[in-house]
């Protein structure tokens, strides 16, 4: 399970980095064309070597790549889902870390559907505890619970 959590962490960091670089928007209504040509597997491997080095060899790169690819390929659908579920915050006003975590979790909840929703939500909350602000874990938990109950 640690390998999957680490893969989610790397995927979240990549999405966050792409948004910081302007490759992802704060809210997508269409698919981003500029990411369609990327070799995501190579990008994940390069990111891993650059930021984590050789001291950590246990990354499920296939899972991390799959998360990034599926999230980017469905980002307009995911953003719409988050935007419609969040009653108090527009997606574009959310913290970028929270947005990256929510996008990944929504990808797993709505598209991958391979794990129990409680596990996916818990993993997102754990990422929020580590990377988000004080309110992030509660915010992400509540929003993902509402998204999950809408299925």
Write a brief structural summary.
This protein has 151 residues and is mostly helical. Helices cover 68% and strands 0% of the residues. The protein contains 7 helices and no strands.
What does this structure look like?
With 151 residues, the chain is mainly alpha-helical. The protein has a single domain, classed as NusB-like (N-utilizing Substance Protein B Homolog, Chain A, Orthogonal Bundle), CATH 1.10.940.10. The chain contains 7 helices and no strands. The radius of gyration is 14 Å and the shape is globular. The model has no long low-confidence stretch (mean pLDDT 87).
CATH homologous superfamily (4th level) name? NusB-like
- Overall helicity: 55-70%
- What's the CATH C level? Mainly Alpha
According to CATH, what is the topology?
N-utilizing Substance Protein B Homolog, Chain A
> How many helices in DSSP terms?
7
Oligomerization category of the chains in this entry: single chain
Order of helices and strands: HHHHHHH
What are the segments in which pLDDT stays under 50 over at least 5 consecutive residues?
A: none
Number of domains: 1
Report the C-alpha radius of gyration, rounded.
14 Å
Average pLDDT value?
Answer: 87
Morphology call? globular
Distance between the termini: 26 Å
Structural class: mainly alpha
Taken as a percent bin, the fraction of beta residues is under 5%
The CATH architecture category equals Orthogonal Bundle
* Main sheet summary: none
Strands, total number? 0
């Amino acid at each position: 399970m640690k390998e999957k959590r680490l893969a989610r962490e790397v995927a979240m960091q990549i999405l966050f980095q792409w948004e910081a670089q302007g490759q992802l928007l704060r809210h997508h209504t269409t698919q981003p064309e500029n990411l369609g040509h990327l070799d995501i597997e190579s990008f994940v491997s390069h990111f891993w070597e650059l930021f984590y080095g050789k001291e950590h060899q246990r990354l499920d790169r296939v899972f991390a790549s799959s998360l990034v690819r599926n999230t980017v390929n469905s980002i307009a659908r995911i953003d719409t889902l988050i935007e419609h579920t969040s009653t108090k915050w527009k997606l574009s006003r959310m913290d970028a870390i929270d947005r990256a975590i929510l996008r990944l979790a929504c990808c797993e909840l709505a598209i991958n559907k391979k794990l129990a929703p409680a596990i996916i939500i818990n993993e997102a909350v754990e990422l929020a505890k580590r990377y988000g602000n004080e309110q992030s874990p509660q915010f992400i938990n509540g929003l993902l619970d509402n998204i999950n109950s809408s299925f």
